Amino acid sequence: MPFNNVSSLPSIVSYGPWGAHNKDFWKIRHQRDILYLFYEDMLEDPKREIRKVMKYVGKDLPEDVVEKIYKRTTFKAMKDNPMTNYSNIPSSVMDQTISPFMRKGTCGDWKSHLTVAQNELFDEYYKKEMSDTDLTFRF
Fold first, then answer.
1. What's the Cα-to-Cα distance from 123 to each of 26, 47, 111, 137, rounded to whole Å?
2. Residue 75 lies in a domain
3. Count of domains in the chain?
4. What's the rounded mean pLDDT across residues 103-112?
């Protein structure tokens, strides 16, 4: 989809505008006890992020359980699992022949699907959209 200007970038997710959705939860994360996890961090050190979730829910699990969680939550394991890859959802709801729910599991691959001009427009949109928050994403 070509983008003519920043305002034409698709910014709506099923929960409302993407920026507002993320920034609103970021603002109240301490008052409402919200745990933020970032995909890049999960790829960088999955067991560290699993331990963050354990701490958040007040659990102290043995290392062998952490290892099992790690193995069952790798991208490959989840992509192969119908319970997590949405392959059981009817194609009338999610047509995975157009785009599978789980593609590669790599960070930043979305940029390889945009033209240089579209990437520049997104960068401009992101800078404007996130200018009033300290929430940052790694690309």
1. 20, 31, 10, 12
2. yes
3. 1
4. 86
Domain that holds residue 73: 45-87+94-102
Mean pLDDT, the chain, rounded, equals 86
- The verdict on residue 77 lying in a domain is yes
- Write out 17-79 in H/E/C secondary structure: EHHHHHHHHHHCCCCCCCCCCCHHHHHHCHHHHHHHHHHHCCCCCCHHHHHHHHHHCCHHHHH
Give a yes or no: residue 78 inside a domain.
Answer: yes
For residue 56, is it within any domain? yes
CB 41 within 8 A of CB 49: yes
113: tokens are: 């699907």
Strand, helix or coil for residue 115: coil
Closest listed residue to residue 73, CA positions, set 52, 92, 47: 47
| Residue 138 amino acid letter | R
Q: Are 3 and 10 in contact (CB under 8 A)?
A: no
What was the pLDDT predicted at 1? 38
Beta-carbon count within 10 A of 73 CB: 15
CA 117 to centroid of chain Cα atoms? 24
